[in-house]
Automatic annotation (TrEMBL):
Domain ArsA/GET3 Anion-transporting ATPase-like span(s) in chain numbering: 34-304
Provenance organism: Streptomyces violaceorubidus
Protein name, entry field: ArsA family ATPase
Disordered, as annotated region: 329-377
Name of one Pfam family that matches: ArsA_ATPase
Gene3D superfamilies recorded: P-loop containing nucleotide triphosphate hydrolases (3.40.50.300)
Length: 453
């Protein structure tokens, strides 16, 4: 079969049928599943996927909370809520005939950090920590804080045992792996050399501590003071001294949440688009989850393109467009055959092919005006048809490219169950749109049949 064979391109344009199809409804309805984590690179539809899954589970009888870390607040808009905050809010308009409920919340990173301090320190120490300039910077945007606080909030929600199902929309980090790495990074920070240096004077105490600091660490603190600034270094030392008794709690909770993610009641869904970079990161995440012994439910492939006319290959469409656009390939105007078949245009018996009235002098005053070009409307229709054929060819090339990308992922990870969602013409803005996405997720097909079909 040659590379340009139409049958080959027709075959490549067909949608991949995964070796394993992800059963979304079974995942959502199983009472043993208590946490679903939607993860993946940025811009692949994690937030919409998480919201659609939460809505579908709620309308099947489960009490659900969706935790998002989406700064664009799309989740609140699609659920008809003015705003989301650190407290779960019940979503109205959900079909609760099966006894389910849907709640939603958006992580407030600083407020979550404040809650940890307030719940694990006495009032005086908590006030000192909350008012510390270094703490305020750390809680507002220290690298990895958002991911750690997302883990912390997940642990809090699960500990309450109030929800049948928690759906987590992971942070829009540069790398989706940040969500998994956050607890370990925090532990490394708390156990790091800098923290031990800053804690040393407080641990030695009194004059001995000051002597130790002045003699043994003057060079270290001098360098840090020049790099960080004296006031800033003092703020850090004060913060570390105040937080010392809490560091063990951070590590303990981080470890507990990490184990929770490894438990059998948790399911990870990797969300991706049918593009090379997105599926490459999805493959890396699948491998990392396996290495960390975390349960992977499957892959959600968003924005998959399809066509109801995929029997017409890109090559045939382009060839037809060229025929319409270039009359030298195929005579589209009928040539002289049109003249011969027109009334009154019979050939001259003396051999002339001109019409009988064409011999009169065009220069005379009563010459008839030139007739309009009868082929112009036909040519404009041909141009429109050629444009549509070229658009179809582009679509078929896109389908073939997505097919090849999905094939590579499936060949590399045949054990991963897949469900696909079609590329939609616009964003989802309401519950009806989320409900439609949920239905598409559950069918495992990019396109749904028309009602009554």
């Amino acid at each position: 079969m040659s590379p340009d064979d139409p049958a080959r391109h027709q075959e490549s344009a067909r949608r991949l049928t995964p070796a394993r199809v992800l059963d979304v409804d079974r995942l959502l309805e199983d009472p043993r599943n208590r946490i679903v984590v939607c993860c993946g690179s940025g811009g692949v539809g994690k937030t919409t996927t998480a919201a659609a899954l939460g809505l579908r589970a709620a309308e099947r009888g489960r009490k659900v909370v969706v935790l998002t870390i989406d700064p664009a607040r799309r989740l609140a808009q699609s659920m008809g809520i003015d705003s989301l905050d650190n407290t779960p809010r019940r979503v109205k308009g959900v079909d609760d005939s099966a006894g389910g409920e849907l709640h939603a919340m958006m992580l407030d990173m600083k407020r979550t950090f404040d809650e940890i301090v307030e719940s694990h320190a006495d009032p005086d120490r908590a006030a000192a920590i909350l008012g510390n300039p270094f703490y305020q910077s750390l809680s507002a945007g220290f690298a990895g804080t958002q991911e750690y606080m997302a883990m912390e909030k997940l642990g809090q929600l699960r500990a309450k045992d109030e929800w049948d199902l928690i759906v987590v929309d992971t942070p829009p980090s540069r790398s989706a792996l940040d969500f998994l790495d956050a607890p370990k990074r925090l532990g490394s920070f708390l156990d790091g050399k800098l923290i031990r240096v800053l804690l040393a004077p407080a641990k030695v105490g009194g004059r001995a501590g000051m002597k130790f600091l002045n003699v043994g660490m003057s060079m270290m603190t001098g360098v840090l003071g020049k790099v960080l600034g004296g006031p800033f270094l003092k703020d850090v030392q004060t913060f570390v001294a105040a937080m010392d008794s809490m560091f063990g709690g951070f590590r303990t909770r981080a470890d507990a949440t990490y184990k929770l993610l490894q438990a059998s009641g948790t399911a990870f869904l990797v969300v991706a688009a049918p593009e090379r970079e997105s599926l490459r990161e999805a493959a890396y995440f699948v491998e990392r989850l396996a290495a960390e012994d975390m349960p992977l439910a499957g892959l959600v492939l968003n924005r998959v393109h399809g066509s109801g006319a995929d029997r017409l290959s890109a090559e045939r469409a382009l060839a037809a467009a060229e025929n319409l656009e270039d009359a030298r390939i195929v005579d589209q105007n009928g040539g002289k055959a049109g003249l011969r078949s027109s009334p009154g245009n019979s050939p001259d018996p003396h051999g002339s092919s001109e019409p009988a009235d064409a011999a009169h002098d065009d220069s005379t005053p009563d010459a008839a005006p030139e007739a309009p070009d009868a082929g112009a409307p036909e040519r404009s229709v041909d141009a429109l048809a050629a444009g549509l054929l070229r658009l179809h060819a582009e679509r078929m090339h896109l389908l073939a490219r997505e097919q090849r990308t999905r094939d590579r992922f499936t060949a590399r990870h045949p054990e991963v169950a897949v469900t696909e969602v079609a590329a939609l013409p616009g964003d989802v803005h309401d519950l009806a749109g989320l409900r439609d996405i949920g239905a598409r997720l559950a069918t495992g097909r990019p396109e749904l049949p028309e009602p009554g079909a």
